[in-house]
Each structure stands twice: as structure tokens, then as C-alpha cells.
């Protein structure tokens, strides 16, 4: 009987190739798996710092800071309404600070020299009193302040030092952490691959009758010799090359897809205007300021005159409100930093979505009424628009315009009329 692998020449010409195929196959498999895994684990790792600090006070402090202090204080030494809180715990004891936060006015009235000094320095702007924050809460806030002020400023353009933006700003494209995890994985993969190939080599030797040879010497020398051979093995080299190529391709594609995607963008604004305060606590209607949402393409950013409807009397003495006055006196508009911005090639109309379709702002912008600083929550990519047009039913209620269409549609489909059915996927609807 002629068993192929007994015949040395045939075996040799077949085996090296199959071995390199195997190596390449394993390499591809491993790198795909690990890439998927790497992404998951970066997502997890991204959440980890918060979770790790969850035991301590800083994580709780962060939430407290953002909800109570961020509209007036930065974690850096930058002035907002009040002084930057960086190093506040070195200026005063935590007991002093606790008393101050509970009731700064009482301290000023009692004649505490530092309290009086800083009050005058800030033009007698009154800090809100927080009698319900416990000493632990306040310690937590400053644990967070110390942590955040020690961290390097976020790289995101314009976000540097913007306390509320810190942590919220996401990077587009692969993060540093992602790259570290990737590199670590590649190393692990190469080790695994090395071991696999050692095993393959030993096995193949056993099969080809060199087993007797190889059993001489102890395990370590055999292992060492195999490793040497493995390092010189063309199959390993080509596998390494493949992994490298795949990683480069993956990184390039990721980079290309995230060009211009600004999800998570939350720049610092020239006036620390808070939607949480105005739209959340005081429940001012979005339309009151964004007068275009029901009527036209653009939602509009309010002019300083709209602010003056209230701030002609409310909080006139606040340095932030003074900026509105300065803007009006100098006749220069407030230079708000634009957050959401589609490229010119795409057409988007607010009234079509808000007025006709009856969508809530939250569908696309997230819960603005909870945001101290506006952040772009959706990706605003073409895929995002299309995805919603595929899934969303057209709001046909009380809209005669759609009656005919609904009838026609119902005659050949059981499903509800989707935006896609009325041409919501046609290129020309969104591109001029
Ligand atoms: C409405 C604005 C406002 C809010 C909200 C606010 N502060 Fe202040 N804070 C100020 C102002 C203004 C000063 C400067 C003193 C003054 O004018 O009363 C100040 C001063 C301070 C100081 C002294 C700073 C220094 O340099 O030593 C500390 C500490 C402080 N605030 C902590 C907090 C904490 C903690 C919170 C949140 C729980 C908070 N503040 C919320 C406006 C505010
Ligand atoms: C008192 C006036 C006022 C009210 C009320 C208000 N806004 Fe705004 N909004 C502004 C100002 C001023 C800006 C620009 C500064 C900024 O980005 O914070 C803005 C910015 C925005 C932006 C980002 C614009 C950009 O640059 O891309 C969105 C989105 C937004 N508002 C949505 C809402 C929603 C949703 C509501 C209701 C829940 C609302 N706003 C209520 C004044 C207001
Ligand atoms: C419908 C009334 C209303 C309008 C319009 C309005 N605000 Fe306010 N704003 C308020 C109220 C109420 C407060 C809370 C005052 C307080 O804390 O005592 C406030 C607080 C503020 C503060 C915090 C001030 C501080 O020192 O605590 C800023 C900054 C501010 N508004 C900016 C703006 C800007 C900018 C606009 C225009 C885009 C605007 N507001 C429009 C009602 C309004
Ligand atoms: C279907 C999604 C969607 C809904 C719903 C929506 N927006 Fe927008 N919004 C966008 C997009 C997309 C942009 C960016 C537009 C651009 O750059 O041309 C934007 C931009 C804005 C801006 C910046 C100024 C401008 O018009 O470019 C403001 C302010 C705003 N939206 C407020 C609102 C408010 C207030 C509501 C609710 C009444 C709302 N939006 C509902 C998608 C939406
Ligand atoms: C949250 C869901 C949602 C998102 C996100 C969304 N849309 Fe829409 N869009 C709708 C709905 C619902 C309608 C149907 C409105 C109507 O009845 O005319 C619509 C209609 C349209 C139309 C008119 C289509 C037609 O055939 O008349 C255009 C153009 C459009 N959207 C553009 C965009 C663009 C551009 C984006 C992304 C920047 C976007 N939309 C994101 C829900 C969405
Ligand atoms: C519902 C709205 C919508 C429809 C329908 C739509 N697009 Fe887009 N398209 C967009 C938006 C929004 C962008 C900008 C997205 C961005 O910057 O990531 C875009 C970007 C693009 C770009 C620029 C490349 C890029 O990714 O930035 C091209 C090319 C394009 N679209 C082609 C098409 C073609 C071809 C069709 C028809 C098959 C089509 N689009 C249908 C909304 C739409």
C-alpha cells in the first residue's frame, strides 16, 4: 500500500505548503478574533477607571461636581464664574471648604478673612449654598477635582480645561489605550502561534520518523532548538507579515471611517450657558430660543437679545451675564462654538423632522435638558440617517398629504409606511 506521507519527496513538497497555509489560517483567525475582542475590551477598559474609582469618592464626586459646581467652577485654575478649584484644598482645610460650601454667605458675614477677600475679588458674586452636601460628598468632589486637574488636558480641540467636557469627550479614531491593547494582543498571539508551530514541528518530526532523534536530550534543549527553527521558519515569517498587514489595514479603515465624525464633541463655550439650568430646571421651551425648529431648515442659535428678555433683570451682577451685556454694548455677537455640523454636501431640515414627523429633539440630540455643556450624542453619519429612515414609521396621522400614499402602500404591504417607502433613501433627498 502506498501511503503518501511515507514517500519522503511527496511529503516534503506537500507539507511545508500546508504548514504555511495552516499558519496563515491560524493567524487570520486569531487576529480577527482578537480585534473583535480588543474592541470589546477597550470599551470595557474605557469604563474601567470610573468603575475602579467607584469604590472611592472621586466617581461620586465627579457626578456631584458636574451637577452642582461645573456651571461656575473649572477643575483647572481657570476662572469661570468662581475661581478654578485646582488646589483649593491646599488654600484651605477641608473643614473650611465644607463650611464654605454649606453657606458661604454666613462665612463672609462672620468676617472670615479669606472668605471676605475672595468674595470681594469676585465682585461679590454669590455662590449658591449647598447645605445638603455632606462632608463626604464634598471630600469626594475635591478628590475628583484633584484627580481631574492632575490629568493631562484632553486632546480634543477646544475641550482643554473644560471641566464638564472632561470624560465626556470621546476621541475619534483608535485611542492610545486601544493601540496598547492591540500591541499586547499581537505579542500574545505571536507567542501562541510560536507554541502551536513548535507542536506542529515536533509532531511532524515524529511522523516523519525523526522521533527517535528528537527524543534524545532533555525537553528544554529540544524546545530551544525547535524555537530556533521556528524563528527561521518562512511560514512563521509570512504569518507575522500577514498579521501586520491585517492590523495596518484595520487601523487604516477605522481611521478612514472616523474622519469627520465628531460624536462626543463638547467644546467649551464662551459663556457657561447651561441647558440643564434653562431647559431642565427652569423648563424654558426649546422653541423659545431655537426659533427655527418648527419653521425651517436651521434650528437657530438665539441672539443676545433673547437672553436679555430675562437677564435684563436676572443675575445682572454675575460675570457670565456681564459677558452678554458686553456683547450687546460692543455690538459683537457672542461667539458660540458650533457643535453639530453636517458637511455642505448633505441637506438636513429641522422642521421636516420636528414639525412634520413629530420627532422629539432627544431622538437625535440626546437629553439636552440634562446637559451642563452641549455634547454631540449622535454620529451624524449617513448610516445614522439611513438607519432611522429604514426603521421609523411615517407620522401620517392628521396629515391629508399622506392619505393617498398610505392607501397605496397598504394595498401591497402589511407593514407600516416607513420613511424609506416615501423616498427617504433616495440620494437626491439628502444630497443636492
Ligand atoms: C452659581 C455659581 C457657583 C456655584 C454653583 C458654585 N460656586 Fe463655588 N464659588 C463661586 C464664586 C463666585 C466664588 C468666589 C467667591 C464669591 O464670590 O462668593 C466661589 C468660591 C468657591 C470656593 C473658594 C475657592 C478658592 O479659591 O479657595 C470653593 C472651595 C468653592 N467655591 C466650591 C464650590 C463647590 C464644591 C461647588 C459645588 C458643590 C460650588 N463651589 C458651586 C460660585 C459658585
Ligand atoms: C434660554 C435659551 C435656550 C433654550 C431654552 C434652549 N437652548 Fe439650546 N442652545 C442655546 C444656546 C445659547 C446655544 C449655543 C451655546 C451652546 O452650545 O451651549 C444652544 C445650543 C444648542 C444645541 C447645539 C447647537 C450646535 O452648536 O450644534 C442644541 C442641539 C440645542 N441647543 C438643543 C436644545 C434643546 C433640545 C432644547 C430644549 C430641551 C434647548 N436647546 C433649549 C440656548 C437655548
Ligand atoms: C426665560 C428666561 C431666561 C432666558 C431667556 C435666559 N436665561 Fe439665563 N438664566 C435664567 C434663570 C432663571 C437663571 C438662574 C438664575 C439664578 O441662578 O438665580 C439663569 C442663569 C443663567 C446663567 C448662570 C448665571 C450665574 O451666574 O449663575 C447664565 C450664564 C445664563 N443664564 C446665560 C444665559 C444666556 C447666554 C441666555 C441667552 C442665550 C440666557 N441665559 C437666557 C433665565 C433665563
Ligand atoms: C432627526 C434628527 C434631529 C432632530 C429630531 C432634531 N435635530 Fe437638531 N440637529 C440635527 C442635525 C443633523 C443637526 C446638524 C445640522 C447641520 O449641520 O446642518 C442639528 C443641529 C441643531 C442645532 C444647531 C443649529 C443648526 O440648526 O444647525 C440646534 C440648535 C438644534 N439642532 C436644535 C434642535 C432642537 C431644539 C430640536 C427639537 C425641537 C432638534 N434640534 C431636533 C438633527 C436633529
Ligand atoms: C430619528 C429618526 C431620523 C433620523 C436620525 C433622521 N431622519 Fe430624516 N426623516 C425621519 C422621518 C420620520 C421622516 C419623515 C418626515 C415626513 O413625514 O415627511 C424623515 C424625512 C427626511 C427627509 C425627507 C424625505 C422625503 O422623502 O420627503 C429628508 C431629506 C431627511 N429626512 C434627511 C435626513 C438626514 C440628512 C438625516 C441625517 C443627518 C436624517 N434625515 C436623520 C426620521 C429621521
Ligand atoms: C437620509 C439622508 C441621506 C441619503 C438618502 C443619502 N445620503 Fe449620502 N450622506 C448623508 C449625510 C448626512 C452625509 C454626511 C455624513 C458624514 O459626514 O459622515 C452623506 C455623505 C455622503 C458621501 C460623502 C462620503 C462620506 O462618507 O462622507 C457620499 C459620497 C454620499 N453620501 C453618497 C450617497 C449616495 C450615492 C446616496 C444614494 C444611494 C446617498 N448618499 C444617500 C445623507 C444621506
TrEMBL record:
InterPro entries: Cyt_c-like_dom (IPR009056), Cyt_c-like_dom_sf (IPR036909), Multihaem_cyt_sf (IPR036280). The chain crosses the membrane at residues 177-203. Keywords: Heme, Iron, Membrane, Metal-binding, Signal, Transmembrane, Transmembrane helix. GO terms for molecular function: electron transfer activity; heme binding; metal ion binding. Gene3D superfamilies: Cytochrome c-like domain, Cytochrome C3. Residues 1-38 form the signal peptide. The keyword Membrane applies. Residues 56-149 form the Cytochrome c domain. PANTHER family: CYTOCHROME C7-LIKE DOMAIN-CONTAINING PROTEIN, LIPOPROTEIN CYTOCHROME C. This is Quinol:cytochrome c oxidoreductase pentaheme cytochrome subunit. It comes from Dyadobacter koreensis.
Amino acid at each position: 500500500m502506498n501511503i503518501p506521507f511515507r514517500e519522503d519527496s511527496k511529503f516534503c513538497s506537500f507539507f511545508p505548503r500546508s504548514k504555511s497555509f495552516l499558519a496563515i489560517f491560524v493567524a487570520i483567525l486569531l487576529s480577527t478574533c482578537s480585534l473583535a475582542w480588543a474592541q470589546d475590551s477597550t470599551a470595557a477598559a474605557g469604563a474601567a477607571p470610573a468603575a475602579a474609582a467607584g469604590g472611592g469618592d472621586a466617581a461620586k464626586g465627579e457626578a456631584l461636581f458636574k451637577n452642582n459646581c461645573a456651571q461656575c467652577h473649572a477643575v483647572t485654575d481657570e476662572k469661570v464664574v468662581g475661581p478654578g478649584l485646582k488646589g483649593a484644598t491646599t488654600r484651605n482645610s477641608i473643614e473650611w471648604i465644607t463650611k464654605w460650601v454649606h453657606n458661604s454667605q454666613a462665612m463672609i458675614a462672620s468676617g472670615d478673612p479669606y472668605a471676605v477677600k475672595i468674595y470681594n475679588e469676585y465682585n461679590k458674586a454669590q455662590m449658591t449654598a449647598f447645605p445638603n452636601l455632606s462632608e463626604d460628598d464634598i471630600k469626594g468632589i475635591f478628590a475628583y477635582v484633584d484627580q481631574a486637574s492632575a490629568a493631562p488636558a484632553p486632546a480634543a480641540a477646544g475641550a482643554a480645561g473644560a471641566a464638564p467636557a472632561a470624560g465626556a469627550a470621546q476621541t475619534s479614531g483608535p485611542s492610545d489605550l486601544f493601540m496598547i491593547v492591540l500591541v499586547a494582543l499581537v505579542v500574545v498571539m505571536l507567542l501562541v502561534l510560536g507554541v502551536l508551530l513548535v507542536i506542529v514541528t515536533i509532531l511532524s518530526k515524529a511522523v516523519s520518523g525523526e522521533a527517535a532523534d528528537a527524543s534524545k536530550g532533555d525537553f528544554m534543549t529540544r524546545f530551544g532548538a525547535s524555537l530556533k527553527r521556528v524563528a527561521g521558519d518562512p511560514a512563521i515569517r509570512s504569518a507575522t507579515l500577514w498579521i501586520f498587514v491585517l492590523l495596518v489595514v484595520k487601523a487604516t479603515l477605522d481611521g478612514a471611517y472616523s474622519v469627520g465624525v465628531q460624536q462626543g464633541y463638547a467644546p467649551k463655550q464662551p459663556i457657561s450657558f447651561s441647558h440643564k439650568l434653562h431647559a431642565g430646571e427652569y423648563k424654558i421651551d426649546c422653541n423659545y430660543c431655537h426659533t427655527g425648529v418648527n419653521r425651517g431648515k436651521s434650528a437657530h442659535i438665539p441672539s443676545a437679545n433673547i437672553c436679555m428678555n430675562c437677564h435684563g433683570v436676572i443675575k445682572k451682577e454675575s460675570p457670565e451675564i456681564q459677558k452678554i451685556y458686553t456683547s450687546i454694548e460692543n455690538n459683537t455677537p457672542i461667539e458660540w462654538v458650533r457643535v453639530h455640523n453636517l458637511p455642505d454636501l448633505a441637506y438636513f431640515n429641522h422642521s421636516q423632522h420636528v414639525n412634520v414627523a413629530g420627532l422629539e429633539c432627544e431622538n437625535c440630540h440626546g437629553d439636552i435638558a440634562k446637559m451642563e455643556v452641549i455634547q454631540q450624542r449622535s454620529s451624524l453619519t449617513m448610516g445614522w440617517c439611513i438607519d432611522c429612515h429604514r426603521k421609523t414609521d411615517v407620522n401620517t396621522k392628521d396629515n391629508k398629504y399622506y392619505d393617498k400614499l398610505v392607501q397605496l402602500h397598504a394595498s401591497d404591504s402589511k407593514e407600516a409606511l416607513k420613511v424609506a417607502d416615501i423616498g427617504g433613501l433616495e440620494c437626491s433627498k439628502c444630497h443636492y
